Amino acid sequence: MKHEDYIQHDGLGLGKLVQNNDITPEELLDAAISQMERVQPAINAVCWPEIDMARDQAKHMSQTLQTDAETSGGQFYGVPMLLKDLGLTAQGLTLTNGSRLFKGNKSSWDNELALRLRKAGFNFFGRSTTPEFGVNCTTEALVYGAPTRNPWNTALSSGGSSGGAAAAVASGILPVAHASDGGGSIRIPASCCGLFGLKPTRMRNPMGPITGEGWGGLGVEHVISRSVRDSAAVLDATHGTDAGAPYCAPAFTGRYQDLDKTDLRPLRIGLITQSPSGLPIHPDCLAGVQDAAKLCETLGHHILPTELPDIDYEAFGHAMRLIVAAGTAQAVREGCDLHNVKPNLDLLEISIFTAVDFAKRYSAVDYADAIVLMHQTGRKLGHFMKDYDVLLTSTLTSPPVEIGRYAANRDYVTHRSDTLKFTAFLPYFNASGQPAMSVPLYWNSESLPIGVQFVGDAGREDLLFRLAFQLEQARPWFDRLSPLAH
């Protein structure tokens, strides 16, 4: 399959070609590998590839289609997939969590989300890069030997923590990639790389069978994609509680991907242009969000300027740092026990090494206080949403940043305090568990993508998808590809 043909299709389109016998899973995998080999030296988005395993799987898929022409195989049958190198176990794939501490660690089993992605038809062929333990807004983990770069401008970062996923999609390696979000980690790289990134409602997708929740309920799993319908179709395939889950998202019946065929009533959209940090927002980001507001008005929606409810930014930042540090320290302990070593700077980056010490300085009561503050934040935002159908903000407070701007070579508190200023609009909605999406509607004068964030009430991915489909039709972005994708 020629590359120019490959990148003209989203994941559903490629899956349809396979189902119609217009192309084989082997040919799709070859197209992904060929593009990976071409752009990987420039962006460093893929880690720990398992090409032979993926080729065997593609061959098996082709044989299955030949012997059983009626097989459905899932809508993404034969479509290549990268899994983020964080948390998600998948049989046969290396999983390092972006850390030298876990280098060489290979998974021997699939967790529930991996099983559902396989059932949807995806063919896993490797991992995408992430910052160490996902604790950064850029992707520069030392274990990979080089930072992950932005396909729109390789002097800049692709964002994080799903930075490798976004760079791989934006450079044309594949149309959709697994991602996760504990404080903006789907929406940050989606904004930086000109892609669509939906963070689902808390526990919309399964976290089991071992893990109950991530980072005290802040973390969720989904994908980054070029098309809205790929994101919707993947969620159709993966959402729903799994056995023993501590809680679940509000039930949804029907198919998210069918919402492009439904009418959308005029929405009350709360427009927020003041950063929670109180610091100025870059003019390009303000221009992007104002542009999105005008577009929404032309579509019949009502724009209502507003401000976020009163949330103590400093107290919230401290609570989030504590929760993330506690989760990180737990993961570090697991790795140290596995290899019978103590935390040290030969295996951990400075920010992570000092995060372990930070976590140990606080008590169980302090951690409980942090969880209470997260829940209080969610209550405030839940009540606030009663006046609006959707909130609109800039995704980030500045355009994509240069490599090294947020490198993890500083102490944890200083580092995380700095990154929160860049991602200020995002983690509140991890605390509340509300669905939120970054939509690529604006590019600045330097041809860099500037995402805007739309937030819905808990459980209302359906409303966000309806709006996303409408925006995608009004201002298509699918064919607006990065220079490296061609």
What attributes characterize this protein structure?
486 residues; alpha+beta; 14% strand; 3-stranded mixed β-sheet; globular
Order of secondary-structure elements: HHHEHEHEEEHEHEEHEHEHHHEHHEEH
The total beta strand count reads 13
| Mean pLDDT rating | 97
Helix content: 25-40%
- Please give the alpha-carbon distance between the first and last residues: 14 Å
Radius of gyration using CA atoms only: 21 Å
Oligomerization state:
single chain
What summary fits the major beta sheet?
A: 8 strands, mixed
Question: Counting H and I runs of at least 4 residues, what is the number of helices?
Answer: 15
Q: Runs with pLDDT <50, length 5+?
A: none
Give the gist of this structure.
The chain has 486 residues and is of the alpha+beta class.
Can you walk me through this structure?
It is a single chain. The chain is α+β, with helices and mostly antiparallel strands and 486 residues long. 39% of the residues lie in helices and 14% in strands. The protein is built from 15 helices and 13 strands. The strands form three sheets. Strands 6-8-7-12-13-11-9-10 form an eight-stranded mixed sheet, with helices on both faces. A hairpin with a 5-residue loop joins strand 12 (436-443) and strand 13 (449-456). Helix 10 packs across helix 12 (364-384). The radius of gyration is 21 Å and the shape is globular.
